[in-house]
Amino acid sequence: MNDVFITKASTYLPNDPISNDEMESYLGLVNNTPSKARALILRNNKITTRYYALDKNNKPTHSNAQITAKAVEGLFDQNFTKADMELLSCGTTSADQIQPSHASMVHGELNLGKSIEINTSTGLCNSGMNAFNYGFLSVKAGVRQNAVCVGSERFSAWMTADKFNHEAENLKQLEERPIIAFKREFLRWMLSDGAGALLLQNKPRENSISLKVEFIDFYSYAHEVEACMYSGCEKQENGDLKSWADYSSNEWLKQSIFALKQDTKLLDEYILVKGAESLRTSFDKHNLDPEKIDHIIAHISSGYFKEGLKEEFAKKGLDFPWEKWYYNLSEVGNIGAGSIFIALEELMNSGKLKKGEKVLLCVPESGRFAYSCALLTVC
């Protein structure tokens, strides 16, 4: 088995950062009415700016595939060219289409002029880590000498007002208040667009920071907990999900079936507890000493969870001091599958890393509560 190193990282964030006050200028007003929930949600999530692949007419400026390709192109230099690339592994929640695969579309955007191996991981926040793991294992096994792994999202196109106006109109006809359900509106004020890319190789790069990948672990708790975050379906009273394919096409619009939704009560109950449980399992499995971890990058969807996550980790004997934590949520927003890559790229290029230090990555996924973590060594 080969050692595997992250030798370069790249980020692409579309257009200019957008402030809280500008959000509805880009996403639009549902039922031509300013959101009453927006201020509360933003106050809790602590996000101050984010990025949208949209203009102020709610028109797209980039596809997800284009955002992803831009991040990949940032990896190319005199040491690693398009001709050198062997494997493209992409993870996203928000692919531009159901088929073809997201990685296939990104390969088309890159104009490499050659055939390569591609892999697409779908799901929610862990799809980026799944893509990372595919590349890691391929290089480790010697199947490939390098792999480009990308996490990306283009959530903004899912959140524009026109996607919800049919539901609001339906509520009017039913003589209900024409306000979309909180489980749908909640995520309109949480999510952001962007992509982060990692280059994995079987040797570290000379005269620059490289990160050796020690391990990547995954844990699912779907056997214990029902779905919390979902799209293309509707949650039933017994917790089951009814597929979009089992609704009529009229109901797709009236009930915003394809909107991304979240059960915030389940989120509060399980997201931190199961995250700490899974990380403790990895520390025991690899016989790790918490005191020897130098940097922690934990993806969180909202600043609301920041204090609670530290407390839950501490309950499991993982009491990391605040100076070791690295966050960029408030500046870039929640970019789902891309968040951990984008934060890692910032840390790699910050000048803060020193040879021999350990970097811990932690990623939760509230879909049906799945978690991943990875340990990296600076070299």
TrEMBL record:
<dbReference type="InterPro" id="IPR016039">
    <property type="entry name" value="Thiolase-like"/>
</dbReference>
<keyword id="KW-0012">Acyltransferase</keyword>
<feature type="domain" description="Beta-ketoacyl-[acyl-carrier-protein] synthase III C-terminal">
    <location>
        <begin position="284"/>
        <end position="364"/>
    </location>
</feature>
<dbReference type="GO" id="GO:0033818">
    <property type="term" value="F:beta-ketoacyl-acyl-carrier-protein synthase III activity"/>
</dbReference>
<dbReference type="InterPro" id="IPR013747">
    <property type="entry name" value="ACP_syn_III_C"/>
</dbReference>
<dbReference type="Pfam" id="PF08541">
    <property type="entry name" value="ACP_syn_III_C"/>
</dbReference>
<keyword id="KW-0808">Transferase</keyword>
<protein>
    <submittedName>
        <fullName>3-oxoacyl-[acyl-carrier-protein] synthase 3</fullName>
        <ecNumber>2.3.1.180</ecNumber>
    </submittedName>
</protein>
<dbReference type="GO" id="GO:0044550">
    <property type="term" value="P:secondary metabolite biosynthetic process"/>
</dbReference>
